[in-house]
Specification:
The chain is of the alpha/beta class. The chain is built from 15 helices and eight strands. The longest helix is centred in the last third of the chain and has 15 residues. Bound molecules: the ligand C[C@H](O)CC(=O)C(=O)O and manganese (II) ion. Belongs to the 4-hydroxy-2-oxovalerate aldolase family. This is 4-hydroxy-2-oxovalerate aldolase.
């Protein structure tokens, strides 16, 4: 990102940071984060001043399933264990309508969750009115979370955001699930939302670092009017991870953007707690780069690697094909289907059968 792309003086801007390690990071850990690990991570982040922490299965409420994998504890167990130990941080959850239900949202609230990202595909906001209304009735901080936002243009995304606002969302998020966007893409979408939303409705940005643009994209979002930024310490998240939060906090401090977090405490959390927890180093390898390059849902990374082993087709090729087909969250069964078709086309299927 060149300086000329930052049009405003961001000094003195206030931004709310939201850590995703204990939700998006569940994808990278194949849902295997223990309650004890969650408590350790969350208390350290609370101490570093992170105001919001998301805690659930990677696919959110209702995520425990054969399709999405089983976590080591229930969402309620995780939420209660973490929220009961927080001094200042609020616990949030993810809810994809259809996967998670309003009953599950109520039970997450009872367990201590006080904020929710209600997530839909970027053209399907109209699947979320009941869930956003339910969150508002519970008194929760409520976000409409438009996933795979690169697949809708700024005008279309603004219309979807306006719908979510009309359902009661306090904040509308542009979610770069594929880590595909460049700063100009983010800026155009935030501006389009800012033009149509009420002044009191906040705008958020959730980035993935597949093209190494998480920080530049988040700064572009702030420049265009976003006030909430998701990231995850040490980037623990799907694909090449989320915007690395400790790095982002350091950049904000350099730019005079106020986050209220202690940068060095966050770097200690990254180094001493998160990195040792990783099963693989979350980084931009050839497969996670392919996600960003081809516009593929970051959550598809590990299932595509498994399909690659099963069918003998390189994961990168599978991911590029999934991007070409514009597959979205919820279409996970197409990963194996695509790999199998490619194996057949390449004459590899006999080897699989034998
Ligand atoms: C279920 C996904 O992981 C939600 C998300 O974080 C994204 O789309 O990005
Ligand atoms: Mn994500």
């Amino acid at each position: 990102m060149t300086d000329s792309m930052i049009t405003g003086d961001l000094k003195g801007r206030k931004v709310i940071l939201h850590d995703m390690c204990l939700r998006d990071g569940m994808h990278a850990k194949r849902e295997q984060i223990s309650v004890e690990q969650m408590i350790k991570v969350a208390t350290a982040m609370d101490d570093a001043g992170v105001p919001y922490l998301q805690v659930t299965h990677g696919a959110g409420l209702g995520g425990n399933s054969l399709q999405h994998g089983f976590a080591l504890a229930s969402n309620e167990e995780y939420i209660h264990a973490v929220s009961s130990r927080m001094k200042q941080a609020k616990v949030s959850v993810l809810l994809i309508p259809g996967l998670g239900t309003m009953d599950e949202l109520r039970s997450a609230y009872e367990a201590g969750a006080r904020s929710v990202h209600v997530a839909t595909h970027c053209t399907e906001a109209d699947t979320s009115p009941q869930h956003i209304a339910c969150a508002r009735e519970l008194g929760m901080d409520s976000t409409g979370f438009l996933m795979m936002a690169h697949l809708n243009d700024p005008k279309g995304l603004a219309e979807q955001g306006k719908l979510m606002e009309s359902y009661g969302a306090h904040t509308v998020y542009i979610t770069d699930s594929a880590g595909y966007m460049l700063p100009a893409d983010v800026k155009a979408r935030v501006q389009a939302l800012r033009d149509v939303l009420k002044p009191e409705t906040e705008i958020g940005f959730h980035g993935h670092h597949n093209l190494g643009m998480g920080i530049a994209n988040s700064i572009a979002a702030i420049d265009a009017g976003a006030t909430r930024i998701d990231g995850s310490v040490a980037g623990l998240g799907a694909g090449a991870g989320n915007t690395p939060l400790e790095v982002f906090a350091a950049v904000c401090e350099r730019m005079g953007i106020e986050t209220g977090v202690d940068v060095f405490k966050l770097t200690d959390v990254a180094e001493e707690i998160i990195v040792p927890m990783m099963d693989h180093i979350v980084r931009i390898d050839r497969e996670s780069l392919a996600l960003g390059y081809a516009g593929v849902y970051s959550t598809f990374l590990l299932p595509a690697k498994r399909a690659a082993e099963r069918y003998g087709v390189p994961a990168r090729d599978i991911l590029v094909e999934l991007g070409r087909k514009k597959m979205i969250g919820g279409q996970e069964d197409m990963i194996d289907d695509t790999a199998m078709t490619m194996a057949k086309e390449r004459g590899l299927l006999k080897a699989v059968a034998s």
